[in-house]
Design brief:
By secondary structure, this protein is an alpha/beta fold. It has three domains: 120 residues, Phosphohistidine domain (Glucose Oxidase, domain 1, 3-Layer(bba) Sandwich); 107 residues, PtsI, HPr-binding domain (Enzyme I, Chain A, domain 2, Orthogonal Bundle); 314 residues, TIM Barrel (Alpha-Beta Barrel), CATH 3.20.20. It is built from 22 helices and 16 strands. The longest helix is centred in the first third of the chain and has 29 residues.
Length: 570
């Protein structure tokens, strides 16, 4: 039995066998072989196994992810069957009497280099297909299994270095009961997705992949941030009891599903949800969400080899708006960059991508992408209560340029005879300190603010939220952060506008009393946090929290703030 400490990233208890989502060792030595015919046969067997595997993956992708995702695997199957690739490999084995692994890699590398040097974008993309396919064949030659989260068919706990957003989006909640990673924090995208999927997660353990083997029995304690490896039967029984108690607590919170979010002295706020796909709506409704405060549209663009069409986007936005039945839906336009990449965009590598060419900066330059998304949103606006939000706005000029493009696309649609809602609110995410400082000027032009604390905190504190060594500086309750939040809320209210928050701080039980006191109108969080937050707010008096907030913004340290909240909220 072993034990790891990490960061509790998603509430709950999970007990299951480990599934290591770790890149295997595919190294090999080049050797001379005695029987080339037998080696060719070994190569053909590996091809056949790879084909069978890809056919299963393709069929499952069609059902779970849709035909567009499945098309990627169709392309891989075509590569596997291509004699232009296979014949040179077999010829090399026969002529040079080298092992299949060596012949495969040398031939594949030649084709990859050839395709990458072509001017044609389509042909360049084929290089990636060849890499993926030959990696799969090489794994079969070496007798190594490649991990594939979408193929999991039994209850497991995922163990990995980290999970990319596209990895996390593929996790099947029926079988994936929880996960643990070496790196990451509460605001990493894998943690945010875990909360959307309602699966327990512990991140930042530093050594999960070193300590945990495939098939080990693992307990993920997403309440305390602990991971237990091959626990005793007694500990398993104890944790089953903890799980049962947590489920009972959730049942109590569930009684508040249809209740309004009102403080003990009658002040109403909106508790809404952050979502990544239309599938997340089920969780919003089941947890009593009063709307969607952040629809992360980038997940429409990820895990595929080309841009989603206007029609695909329209259908997704329409589904969310209709699903919320008139409740507000705040849609964030494409926020790609930082740790969210689109391989098919071929963007150059940057020294500091979080401060680089991303989000609205990318959209204002790559206007074809932006205009397609805006058209889809405008067309969908007839089906619900749409609010559009631009991310990473640093200057008034950026907001005005984005708004102008939106207006141009609206006029084009109207000229084409299409109807567009006249009641679309237009807002910005406040995640850059300069924007918070100038909030009084932005408030004259926007319809609302949504404070993105995940980035606002790291930019204000100059501390990368993914970097474990400076994680102590990621301080949501710092008086400096609270002052910025107050500036934004006060600026909005001075102009008769509303202010929300869509960062993870909005669902934090230490932050909620402070945000209530600061006058936040809308709290947007993971759907699974809504009922707990509603229960907390029902027991707080806004008048008391206003006094608390006024006290803490004049404090010096985060520790002082936490102590003050703990003393006030017993």
């Amino acid at each position: 039995m072993a034990f790891l400490n990490g960061i509790a990233a998603s509430n709950g208890i999970a007990i299951a066998k480990a599934y290591r989502l770790v890149e295997p060792d595919l190294s090999f030595d080049k050797t001379t072989i005695e029987n080339p015919s037998a080696e060719v046969e070994r190569f053909r067997n590996a091809i056949a196994k790879a084909k069978s595997e890809l056919e299963v993956i393709r069929d499952r992708a069609k059902v779970d992810l849709g035909p567009d995702k499945a098309a990627i695997f169709e392309a891989h199957l075509l590569v596997l069957s291509d004699p232009e690739l296979n014949s040179p490999i077999e010829d090399k084995i026969q002529a040079e009497k080298v092992n299949a692994e060596s012949a495969l890699k040398e031939t594949a590398d030649m084709f990859v280099m050839m395709f990458e040097q072509m001017d044609n974008e389509y042909m360049k993309e084929r290089a990636a297909d060849i890499r993926d396919v030959t990696k799969r064949v090489l794994a079969h030659l070496l007798g190594v299994q490649l991990p594939n989260p979408s193929m999991i068919a039994e209850e497991v706990i995922i163990v990995s270095e980290d999970l990319t957003p596209s990895d996390t989006a593929q996790l099947n909640r029926q079988f994936v009961k929880g996960f643990t990673t070496n790196i990451g924090g509460r605001t990493s995208h894998s943690a945010i997705m875990a909360r959307s999927l309602e699966i327990p997660a512990v991140v930042g353990t530093k050594s999960a992949t070193e300590e945990i083997n495939n098939g080990d029995l693992v307990i993920v304690d997403g309440l305390k941030g602990e991971v237990h490896i091959n626990p005793t039967p007694e500990l398993v029984a104890e944790y089953r009891n903890v799980h049962e108690q947590f489920e009972k607590q959730k049942a109590e919170w569930a009684k508040l599903i249809n209740e309004p979010s009102v403080s003990a002295d009658g002040h109403h706020v909106e508790l809404v949800a952050n979502i990544g796909t239309p599938k997340d709506l089920k969780g919003v409704i089941e947890n009593g969400g009063e709307g969607v405060g952040l629809y992360r549209t980038e997940f429409l663009y990820m895990g595929r080899d080309q841009m989603p069409s206007e029609e695909e986007q329209f259908e997704a936005y329409k589904a969310v708006l209709e699903g919320m039945a008139g409740k507000p839906v705040v849609v964030r336009t494409l926020d790609i960059g930082g740790d969210k990449e689109l391989p098919y965009l071929n963007l150059p590598k940057e020294m500091n991508p979080f401060l680089g060419f991303r989000a609205i900066r990318l959209c204002l330059e790559e206007q074809d992408i932006f205009r397609t998304q805006l058209r889809a949103l405008l067309r969908a606006s007839n089906y619900g209560n749409l609010k559009i939000m631009f991310p990473m706005i640093a200057t008034l000029g950026e907001f005005r340029d984005a708004k102008a493009i939106l207006e141009e696309e609206k006029q084009k649609l109207v000229a084409e005879g299409q109807t567009v809602s006249d009641h679309i609110e237009l807002g910005i995410m406040v995640e850059i300190p300069s924007t918070a400082v100038l909030a009084d000027q932005f408030a004259k032009e926007v319809d609302f603010f949504s404070i993105g604390t995940n980035d606002l905190i790291q930019y204000t504190m100059a501390a990368d939220r993914m970097n474990q060594r400076v994680s102590y500086l990621y301080q949501p309750y710092s008086p400096s952060i609270l002052r910025l939040v107050k500036m934004v809320i006060d600026a909005a209210h001075a102009e008769g506008k509303w202010a929300g928050m869509c960062g993870e701080m909005a669902g934090d039980e230490t932050a909620i009393p402070l945000l209530l006191g600061l006058g936040l109108d809308e709290f947007s969080m993971s759907a699974t946090s809504i009922l707990k937050a509603r229960s907390l707010i029902k027991n707080l008096k806004k008048s008391d929290m206003e006094k608390l907030a006024q006290e803490v913004i004049n404090m010096q340290t985060t520790d002082q703030v936490i102590a003050a909240v703990n003393a006030a909220v017993k």
